[in-house]
Design brief:
By secondary structure, this protein is mainly α. Helix content is about 75%, strand content about 0%. It has 21 helices and no strands. It has helices at about 10, 20-55, 65-95, 95-115, 130-160, 165-190, 215-225, 230-240, 245-250, 255-265, 270-280, 295-310, 315-320, 320-325, 330-355, 360-380, 385-400, 405-415, 420-450, 460-480, 490-500. It is globular and about 70 Å long. The model is unreliable at about 1-15 and about 205-210 (pLDDT under 50).
């Protein structure tokens, strides 16, 4: 596919000797569409899961239990684990750009397949065990796309961005993820319209346990929600064909003139030559063993990913309407949309402070804020008259994540590893992220619903209390072990880890 090549005359006004900022922004904006689809695909389940649950409860050949619903709600995460594990191999062997093209196609196929899993195989609208399996396969396909995008989009941005604004640009990827979640909250809200969500009180009773006025949501609404992803997925798959490959990958395969051309458009001629020489110095071999720079380099990357998920944020994002509904709120989708707006605003805090304050302070402050919010939920959830305090605690919890672990984890994963092991190291780190995402998301509902005695709130305070403790441990981990990368080039990280090895 052809790369973007801006006409020389169009660059004169904004490039000069410093490179073209508009060229850089244009290719970064295409890359962050992958982040938007990441957010869209993972959050679409929040509005669709109750209708989906009620639909499969009508199956006559098996009983759709809480366990099945937890698995189905989180099945895309299995694909995310697969996609992230494959990302290193694909990024290293076919390039960052072609890997993102594959991700776009997978998003598109998954959106259409999840909307109509009966296509060519089953009678429309007839739930069954076999249909559930096919539906989950389509969700896994989309998850593979998410896994690829989650690893390669920040890697792509990090490898094209100048060091002075790299953190800010990679943070825009997290903004796109949260924006994608907000967009799908709105889309789900408008698709639902005047219709209502089913009230599923007990599993295994079929349609008898579902309110009759929710029938449209059960038969049709969840399909529209999943299918709505096809439009942004198709757009991403098309636009990614027109961005250039990253200079670091081009150097790794010996295409020095092409790499210099991309660097020149972004940084200007003189700076491009200097950067190219630096890249060559750290890539005298295409790849090195993962532990060439010591086990701590890989360990830090893995634990950044583990903590980003173990703090429990995605349990809140995926099940937000259900949580607010359990709190007795009349229209939980409205509150979920409001939370999405708050998340967007606090993600902007990270974007505009990451190059000023650094990565470590934002992670530490965010961890402490999340702990405060999680403990607030643990102490107040389910207590009469405390609903607003609980809602505010959830907002604090989410907002603290959005200016810290949300964007900054991706920034560090994109820039912390040396050039020669980045593809494989990022793949391992992101695979661990999705493994723990799956663990947290699939265990949240059964853990949240635990009772020591009939009617008690043990599961509520235990779940959020556990998340709060993990947040405190995450703050200590960052303080003690994570290196600050603000202002450092990707090549500087090679020198840093070599000195520590």
């Amino acid at each position: 596919m052809a790369d973007v090549v801006a006409p020389q005359s169009s660059e004169q006004g904004d490039r000069g000797e410093g490179g073209s900022r508009s060229y850089l922004i244009s290719i970064v904006m295409v890359a962050v569409l992958g982040g938007l689809l990441f957010g869209y695909d993972t959050a679409v389940i929040s509005g669709a899961e109750k209708g989906l649950q009620a639909f499969f409860m009508e199956a006559r050949d098996f009983t759709y239990t809480d366990g099945w619903h937890g698995f189905t709600s989180a099945s895309a995460l299995i694909g995310c684990i697969i996609g992230s594990a494959l990302s290193g191999f694909l990024a290293t062997n076919i390039g960052r750009k072609r890997s993102l093209m594959i991700a776009g196609l997978l998003f598109f196929v998954s959106a259409l397949g999840s909307m109509n899993p009966e296509f060519l195989l089953f009678d429309y609208g007839q739930p069954s065990y076999s249909l559930l399996i096919v539906f989950n396969i389509y969700r896994v396909i989309g998850g593979i796309g998410v896994g690829l995008a989650s690893a390669i989009c920040p890697m792509y941005i990090g490898e094209v961005a100048p060091s002075g604004i790299r953190g800010m640009l990679v943070s825009w990827n997290q903004f796109a993820i949260i924006f994608g979640q907000l967009v799908v909250y709105f889309v789900n809200f408008f698709i639902l319209g005047e219709h209502v969500q089913p009230l599923v009180e007990e599993m295994g009773k079929g349609i008898a346990a579902i309110n009759p006025d929710a029938q449209w949501t059960v038969t049709t609404g969840w399909r529209y929600m999943f299918g709505s992803e096809a439009l942004p997925a198709g757009l991403f798959a098309l636009l990614i064909c027109f961005v250039p490959e990253t200079p670091r990958y081009l150097v790794s395969i010996g295409k020095y003139p092409v790499a210099l051309n991309v660097l020149t458009k972004i940084n200007g001629k003189q700076e491009a030559s200097r950067i190219l020489n630096e890249i060559k110095e750290t890539m005298n071999v295409k790849t090195e063993r993962l532990l060439t720079y010591g086990w701590m380099c890989i360990f830090v990357g893995i634990m950044l990913s583990v903590f980003q998920q173990a703090v429990g944020i995605n349990a809140v994002l995926y099940y937000a309407p259900r949580i607010f509904g359990d709190m007795g709120m009349e229209n939980p989708m409205v509150v979920t949309v409001f939370m999405g707006v708050v998340n967007i605003l606090f993600t902007l805090v990270a974007i505009f402070t990451v190059e000023k304050w650094g990565r470590k302070p934002l992670l530490i402050y965010g961890s402490l804020g999340m702990a405060m919010g999680a403990f607030g939920v643990a102490l107040t959830f389910g207590h009469a008259g405390m609903e607003l305090v609980t809602a505010a605690s959830i907002m604090v919890y989410a907002a603290s994540f959005m200016f810290s672990w949300g964007p900054i984890c991706w920034v560090l994963i994109a820039e912390i590893f040396p050039n020669t092991i980045r593809g494989g190291a990022v793949a391992i780190a992101v695979a661990f992220q999705w493994i723990f995402n799956f663990i947290v998301s699939s265990t949240f509902v059964p853990m949240f619903n635990m009772h020591l005695t009939e009617g008690d709130d043990f599961g509520h305070w235990f779940t959020y209390g556990l998340y709060g403790i993990i947040c405190l441990v995450a703050a200590i981990f960052v303080w003690k072990l994570v290196p600050e990368t603000k202002g450092k080039t990707l090549e500087d990280m090679t020198k840093l880890w070599r000195a520590k090895a």
